[in-house]
Amino acid sequence: MSEEIKAPEKKKRIFSAIQPSGTITLGNYVGALRNWVRLQDDYDCIFAVADLHAITVRQDPKEFKKNILEAYALFLACGIDTEKSIFFIQSHVHTHAELAWLLNCYTQFGELSRMTQFKDKSAKHADNVNAGLFTYPSLMAADILLYQADLVPIGADQKQHLELTRNIADRFNGIYGKTFTVPDAYIPEVGARIKSLQDPTKKMSKSDENVNAWVAILDKPETIMKKFKRAVTDSEARVCVGEGKDGINNLIGIMGSVTGKTADEITAEFEGKGYGDFKTAVGEAVVETVRPIQDKYNKLISDKAYLEEQYRKSAEIALRISQRTLDKAKKKIGYIL
Ligand code: TRP
C-alpha cells in the first residue's frame, strides 16, 4: 500500500488567558481549562495567566504573588503541557503592555463605555473605577492580536470583548493595511454550563458568598462531598432531566461532564434511587476527577525551580513571537524602530 506524503498542514493558532484569582472552580475547569488541554494536540496553542488584567481591581501584594504562581502550577497540573503549548505569565512579556497602549489610541471611548463587564465591575467596585478597568478590553485585544491568533476560546462573558478586538483589528488593518489576524471566537461543542449548587439558576462562581455554592478544584475530598450533599434539589425525588428541576439538571450535567456519560445513561443508572445516593455518587465522581490534578499540583507547587524554568522558557518564546507583531504595528504607525 502506498502512503501519500503530504506537507503537514499549518495548525491554526489559539490564544486564551485566565486571570489568577486564587480559586479555580469546577465550573472553570469543565468550562475552560479542560477544553484548553484538549485543544493542545490539534492547534498551535498559546496560553497565559492574565496577571496584568488582574490589577484592575485592588490586589494584596502577597496574596497576588501567591495566586499567580498557584494558578500557573494548577494549570500545568490540569494538563497544560509546555512541550506542546506556550504557557506564560502575561506580565513577563512586555509587548502586551506596549501594544495595549498603541491599541488604546485606536479604540473609541464610546466602544469601551458600552462594555457590560465595565458597567458591572464599576458598579461593584464603585470606589475604584480606574482607567485600567475601562481600557481592560484593549489589553485583551493586545494579548490576542500580538500572536496573530485565529481562534480564541472564551466563555459567553468575554464575547463582547472579542467582538471589540475584531473591530480594533479591522480598524487598524483598514488604516495601515493588513497587520493583525482578525480572530474568531472558539465555542467548544460540548461543555455543560455548571451552575451554583445552592441556586442552580445562577452560574457557579467563586465570588458567591455562599461557599457551598461552588466547588474548587483544590477543595479537600471531604469538603467536596459535603458541598454535594448540601446541593439544592427538588421535591420530586426522581433522577432525570426535567423542567423546574434546575438542581438535578445541574447535578446530571456535572456527573455527565466528569464521567462522559449521557443524561439518559445517568437516569437509567439511578432509576429507583433517591437524591441522597445520587448526590453522593456525583460527589465521588468529582473527587475522582480532581484527585490526580491535586496530586500533581502538590508536587509542582513544591518545585519552584521547575515552575520557573517552565514560565521563563515560555515567556522567551512568547516575546519573540509577539515582538514581531509589535514591530510591524509600530512601523506602520510611523515609529522609528
Ligand atoms: N478577560 C479574560 C477573563 O477575565 C481573560 C483574558 C485576558 C483573556 N486576556 C485574554 C481571554 C485574551 C481570552 C483572550 O476571563
Fold and architecture overview:
It is a single chain. With 337 residues, the chain is mainly α. It has 2 domains: 13-191 and 304-333, HUPs (Rossmann fold); 211-299, Tyrosyl-Transfer RNA Synthetase (Orthogonal Bundle). It has helices spanning 26-39, 51-54, 61-78, 95-104, 109-113, 116-124, 131-146, 159-176, 221-229, 246-259, 263-269, 275-301, 304-333; strands spanning 13-18, 44-49, 86-89, 151-153, 184-186. The strands form 2 sheets. It has a 3-stranded parallel sheet. A two-stranded parallel sheet has the order 4-5. α4 (95-104) runs parallel beside α13. The N and C termini lie far apart (55 Å). Bound molecules: tryptophan (TRP).
Poorly predicted sequence stretches spanning 5 or more consecutive residues: none
List bound small molecules: tryptophan
Distance between the termini: 55 Å
- Going across the biggest sheet, name each strand in turn: 1-2-3
State the domain count: 2
* SSE string: EHEHHEHHHHEHEHHHHH
Tell me the radius of gyration: 22 Å
The count of DSSP E runs of length 2 or more, i.e. the number of strands, is 5
